[in-house]
């Protein structure tokens, strides 16, 4: 067989190249459409919102006059709720992930329970957040009315003016809000931490074990330190989801007009997405611009968080073997 | 021993060993002279005592019997090599000596496996303490993603309450014993992952001997290395033989011939023949052994 006979006819080659190029062009068009949507969205928000964008916007309280309105209380509400969420969700989530990943049971019935829990955590990560809002309402806000109703709590410690005021049931306060957000992000953190732990090669566990580490020391000195960058990245992304959550907060805090920053764990609060929703639902056109300003602030916070996650992934994720 | 307090380790069921573990003893006089790897192997004189006694040892994975009635005396401070085709049970045997098979839920064993009077199969034997006495080097070098120093200090930090200066001494001695000190002394704080494969494996050996084991198990320690690194590890094994009982699994029969005093041939879960290495390779008693060492199968 001659060399010439083995080459394709020219016509077929050009058609094949053409098809190849068509595919590339199709991909570019699709990518351009999604980018265009994003650009239009962002530019319309920025043009609308820049009018009221100033430092004082972060400090001022919501006002009837758009020029005076600010996002201060909502921002502080978000900070309170998210700090509570992070402080509770991180230890619980990482602990659960370590149990599920590093201490897999050996007995068959325990293995079945392990598989059941694992399946459910993966499913919980996909449950709509409003469901967690309703769960939080019964679990934290009302506590099934076990401790009286909201207006007459059974147990109180301090008065509403003290910074350490605590009551049972928690009521529509920052603690209930933070714990509800914890429910929302817990499955995400568990799954992310499990993946980070799974990425630690088994040879490292065996190596630590062969030196005489107890299972606990293997986790504390080998697996967990190696997984920390991955856990951090996943947790930060989970927290940026928590910051943007409106639905469960709507159930817990309600649409309230709040002009003060929260002072204690039981204090009423609002969060940035709710405040934005509040402004956007007002009839005056000017308040829609204020809402856009709030969105800019929210987006800046979210993008900062995501950038931090990318940074950690890039600079702290060392190769493990 | 004055500068270091050893954690109380042995549970009541495990009899204490003859003398304390020599972690603070003078460094073994390695590095001073090292035979070239081409040099003829050590004399195969019989060892004074037996380190590991194996009698009627059976091991299973679930219902599959991996080892049948193994009988073996591993001599103290000698190199014993386990050879045989893949799947013959030699790695399984090795991993029972430091109970790494505990990690595998379906693994079980019976018979006698005894290290200086410690019943290795007993539930009462503390596997964590056992693994300090029986170090292990794996097939693929597995340095921890930490600094070279922290790799070697990992074991001592687990087991001993030890002062910083003494720990530095111990790390240096271990690295010297593993013939790695000269190459890494200027970069102890840099990552162990930056070392070459052969250096990584010697680091793993340094890490294993830093806790003062009596036995060092090696599971094909050179199979991932180039010939030059292999030669260095083999030199090292011959040096370590002065202070440690070494059991090495290898697929490389020349390696077994070069480094070991005693060779055991495993085939299909049975220990076919054990003898002085020279005898096994030149004058095997068993037909299967002869076929294997002459390369007729396996």
Overview of the structural elements:
The complex is a heterodimer of chains A (321) and B (298). Chain A contains 12 helices and 2 strands, in the order ααααααββαααααα. With 321 residues, chain A is mainly α. Chain A has 2 domains: 3-50; 53-316, MetI-like fold. In chain A, helix 4 packs antiparallel against helix 9 (215-244), helix 6 (129-142) crosses helix 7 and helix 11 (272-280) runs antiparallel to helix 12 (285-316). The longest helix of chain A has 40 residues, at 10-49. The radius of gyration of chain A is 26 Å and the shape is flat. By secondary structure, chain B is of the alpha/beta class. The relative contact order of chain B is 0.19. Chain B is built from 10 helices and 12 strands. Chain B has a 6-stranded mixed beta sheet, sandwiched between helices. Chain B has a 4-stranded antiparallel beta sheet with strand order 3-2-5-6, with helices on one face. Chain B has one domain (50-293): Rossmann fold. In chain B, helix 3 (148-159) packs parallel to helix 6. Classes of the chains: A mainly alpha (321), B alpha/beta (298). Chains A and B meet through helix 8 and helix 9 of A and helix 2, helix 3 and helix 6 of B.
Features:
heterodimer; A: 321 residues; MetI-like fold; 12 helices; 69% helix; flat; B: 298 residues; alpha/beta; Rossmann fold; six-stranded mixed beta sheet; 10 helices; 31% helix; globular; disordered N terminus
User: Could you tell me which chain pair has the largest interface and how many residues each side has?
Assistant: A-B, 21 and 26 residues
Weakly predicted, low-confidence segments of chain A? none
In the CATH hierarchy, what is the class of chain B? Answer: Alpha Beta
CATH superfamily of the largest domain in chain A: MetI-like
Shape of chain B from CA axes?
A: globular
Task: Find the CATH superfamily of chain B.
Answer: P-loop containing nucleotide triphosphate hydrolases
SS field, number of helical segments of chain B? 10
Poorly predicted runs of chain B are: 1-44
Compressed to H and E, one letter per element, the order of chain A equals HHHHHHEEHHHHHH
Strand content of chain B: 15-25%
Strand order of the largest sheet of chain A: 1-2
